Amino acid sequence: MTQELTVGFVGLGGMGRAMAGNLVRAGHPVRVWNRSPGPVAELVAQGAEAASDLAGALDADVLFSMLADDRAVQPLLDPTLLAQARPGLVHVNMATVSVDFARRAAAAHADHGLGYVAAPVLGRPTAAEAGALTILAAGTPELLDRVDPLLAVLGRRTWRLGAEPHLANAQKIAANYLIACAIGAMSEAAALVDAVGGTPSDLIGIVTDSILPGPVHTGYGAMVAERRYEPAGFRAVLGLKDVNLALTAGAEANVPLPLGSVLRDGLLDAVAHGDGDKDWAVLAEVARRHAGLA
Amino acid sequence: MTQELTVGFVGLGGMGRAMAGNLVRAGHPVRVWNRSPGPVAELVAQGAEAASDLAGALDADVLFSMLADDRAVQPLLDPTLLAQARPGLVHVNMATVSVDFARRAAAAHADHGLGYVAAPVLGRPTAAEAGALTILAAGTPELLDRVDPLLAVLGRRTWRLGAEPHLANAQKIAANYLIACAIGAMSEAAALVDAVGGTPSDLIGIVTDSILPGPVHTGYGAMVAERRYEPAGFRAVLGLKDVNLALTAGAEANVPLPLGSVLRDGLLDAVAHGDGDKDWAVLAEVARRHAGLA
Amino acid sequence: MTQELTVGFVGLGGMGRAMAGNLVRAGHPVRVWNRSPGPVAELVAQGAEAASDLAGALDADVLFSMLADDRAVQPLLDPTLLAQARPGLVHVNMATVSVDFARRAAAAHADHGLGYVAAPVLGRPTAAEAGALTILAAGTPELLDRVDPLLAVLGRRTWRLGAEPHLANAQKIAANYLIACAIGAMSEAAALVDAVGGTPSDLIGIVTDSILPGPVHTGYGAMVAERRYEPAGFRAVLGLKDVNLALTAGAEANVPLPLGSVLRDGLLDAVAHGDGDKDWAVLAEVARRHAGLA
Amino acid sequence: MTQELTVGFVGLGGMGRAMAGNLVRAGHPVRVWNRSPGPVAELVAQGAEAASDLAGALDADVLFSMLADDRAVQPLLDPTLLAQARPGLVHVNMATVSVDFARRAAAAHADHGLGYVAAPVLGRPTAAEAGALTILAAGTPELLDRVDPLLAVLGRRTWRLGAEPHLANAQKIAANYLIACAIGAMSEAAALVDAVGGTPSDLIGIVTDSILPGPVHTGYGAMVAERRYEPAGFRAVLGLKDVNLALTAGAEANVPLPLGSVLRDGLLDAVAHGDGDKDWAVLAEVARRHAGLA
Lengths: 294, 294, 294, 294
Description:
Chains A, B, C, D: Keywords: NAD, Oxidoreductase. Chains A, B, C, D: It comes from Streptacidiphilus pinicola. Chains A, B, C, D: Pfam families: NAD_binding_11, NAD_binding_2. Chains A, B, C, D: One of its GO terms (biological process) is organic acid catabolic process. Chains A, B, C, D: Belongs to the HIBADH-related family. Four copies of one chain form a homotetramer. The first copy, chain A, has helices at about 15-25, 40-45, 55, 70-75, 80-85, 100-110, 125-130, 140-155, 165-195, 200-210, 215-225, 235-250, 260-270, 285-290; strands at about 5-10, 30-35, 50, 60-65, 90-95, 115-120, 120, 135, 155-160. In chain A, the strands form two sheets. A six-stranded parallel β-sheet of chain A has the order 3-2-1-4-5-6, with helices on both faces. Chain A has a three-stranded mixed β-sheet with strand order 7-8-9. Chain A is elongated and about 65 Å long. Chain A has about 290 residues and is of the alpha/beta class. Chain A has two domains: about 1-165, Rossmann fold (3-Layer(aba) Sandwich); about 170-290, N-(1-d-carboxylethyl)-l-norvaline Dehydrogenase, domain 2. The longest helix of chain A is centred in the middle third of the chain and has 30 residues, at about 165-195. Chains in contact: A-B, A-C, A-D, B-C, B-D, C-D. The interface between A and C is medium-sized, with 17 and 17 residues.
């Protein structure tokens, strides 16, 4: 049944490439489009079809997009483009965009009688390759039902977070906020332990072995403890973007987020010191510098 | 061999009672002392001996103390008392005390030729009963070797964190700091999700199912999502005490802890609103009030 | 000499009306334009000429604009409009706009061979009426020389802050930041004094009589002490806008402004509680609420 | 009438020396005591009498003390000492002590039937020499009436802030808090102006010429603008002490002071970088470092 769905896929970065590949392998006709041609060729080699232009990717039953941020997705809201979409198209936007963008995107698609689903994900490229992403989806139940078989190819679990797409983005922004706070907390705590003569890696070992297990504390904790921020899993400039997404969503809803302001200041400090392209665990160096330890 | 060690135990609250009981059941002679008599009788019924006074508990090879805070442990540093201790006594202080107190306690014991080990724990009374605590120990290797069999009765794992006792306290304070930050982060994120129309329990479900599993996010996360802060697992006033332990240790070592200042202000706000005896997850209400949601 | 300069004036709010009137009284031909017609009629009665449209105000030697914010000034950057300006026009923008807007505005005028001077002011409408504003000006020396006689009509003193217009806006944003911090500080200090049983108006009396004289501490201090926030001298929503101007300028230059984050959170809290239209000294109520005093 | 009052004076530092000298010159018999002998000899040369010990200074109608902090004043609460005081003695404590200390001091004096007045001051040694201090006094009206003629010798104005002595200390702590916030605000604003290419001294010039005149903005503002922190008017370590007095008083009364937490972190950062003995305007360097400017 789902075999009959034609899929467009826009945005073949580290995440999108893996996801599109999984859709191809699941037997779906997939029309891919990407700003740079390399990944397109790669996907075509796996069985995908290259769209001749962006509009070509919208000649589909379901359009997936996996792009960097609001600005990168903005062209997909162009009225001229949307007017060329296959009637009945459902756009599944998997990017981490702002709450405000999600609202505008939903409205733009509705204006053209098209469906819009927000489905940002938790998980790294390895999880994307394994089809093991955690998918945070929001949209009308009818649309979610329609795309559910495709999402099942991409992820281990799909959460349904409401009928309004922006609710999925809010949850994704909130989840990233929890990651940011965990990194900031480990950064400060490690500086404290170090300053009194203790060993930060013991702290990370203790908590990940007991009260705070899981990939965030294990992965970023190791970076904090070892003061190793390259290669970056997630760059500080992107972390700053994500913290700003939370602060902006908060400001629009009159929700002060004081922990987020501390993290934002720390990430600005990191960027000011030339560490914007290092992993955002480089917050640990900011905490150290403020304590005269760096 | 460890059977031959006579144990004193001071502080039979929810944690101490369970721990002393485990030592009794492991076959050690245990002399217990407590401010209020009820728990003493309970332990005697299990096979412990009641010390006639505080000094009686120090007539032992190893003294365990499990008290509330610096102030409660202070009487154990009294020179007159320490002078009455059995020669060679090792005091294992399992309380969450300040770094500064740990330094003073180690010095006071050294003045009387006594041993001092800091061994604060991670775990609730249920873990204490099950002998499944995580024990953060610091002291000279010789002393740690000596008390190790006893600690093995109390915990699932003993971490050795250095020769200076205060290092264990610093790690414990840092671990609690991570818990506090996690609660604060969930509180703010839940307020954000709620304010934009989403469901906080979804957020907690998503992250505990994926990136942030474990008891801190599961347990406190449920309280935050359900806005249920009683019965308290850990009261806000105690949480404030613990955050202050971190801030004070930081101040002594010139380590700014800006996230901790935010948490401290939030907990003061909670106490000012009469919520000091609720669980410290009541930080979620503070975040809600600041957003006009409460 | 300056008599020969024809002046356009756009934006006849509380400030602009008074300023345009002063230019008329100083003998300059003034062509006024405003979104709502009332103030135009008022100025015409004083001797000004009504421009038939916005472009009409640009048929002048010098264009003054006194508008609310970036968004309100944006139409003045319209290329079609700028193409209609009298050759050699110098636009003196007296609004508190963002550093980024100032850069874009300077570039837009340069594209059309027009001059651009940033000249935001310190002072209330009463100071505008008295021609006693403090003017923060930036632009090329040649342009500043040209408009100087006109600025002398409007203000008691003109500061020259550099050749690049955005520098004046940065100084204005920074000055407003100092005001915001002073209000926030008085708010917290007053809550502290009150909570221990003292009298906040004594605090304000003491400091304005000695170490912190001047209109900021006297004026806003009285509001804080008396808990009287209406009529608003400067509304909380505008204060939030100004603090955000500082935070945004800081973010663009990688300058963390942690005091500003605290103020921003406080103002969001005020708005969330329905106090957005009260004077921004309502920060005092936020501080009181957090202390359980309100 | 006041001529008949015998005065004791303890604490002959930069401030106390000048104040005691003024009392001598006003014709009062003054018995001075100081930890180091140099200033005693100096005062004796001016006409004072040297007390043979601390108790000798309490053989007086009114005892003034001008000491550094709680710890330095603590010996004056010694019951044995207070028992030796001349009956009816009124102790006027002019130090910046904690609210809690003031409460304990008042109680200790009451226990011995002695009077206690808190009278901390605003002003530098030059103001002390000129008898131009601002005096913040609290105590029963009867006691304040009694010491008023002496305070009139020392200051330009005496504020009566309540019958409970700690109220004067709370006001002094709050006033210093306003100074600290002003310095912190100028530090951040100067970093912002500098980072965008402007001139910090212009900012200070603008605001002190208009909205923020007075010694705090003029004096500390010059230090911030010129990045000159020596000689210190008030050392960073003392500033940290004063901010902590506010935070502690706030914590005791459940008053969050988030701006104060930012200042505290900044001052810890300064101390961690070896700047503890520089003027607390060195906060400007902290702001610069965080922005990558230093």
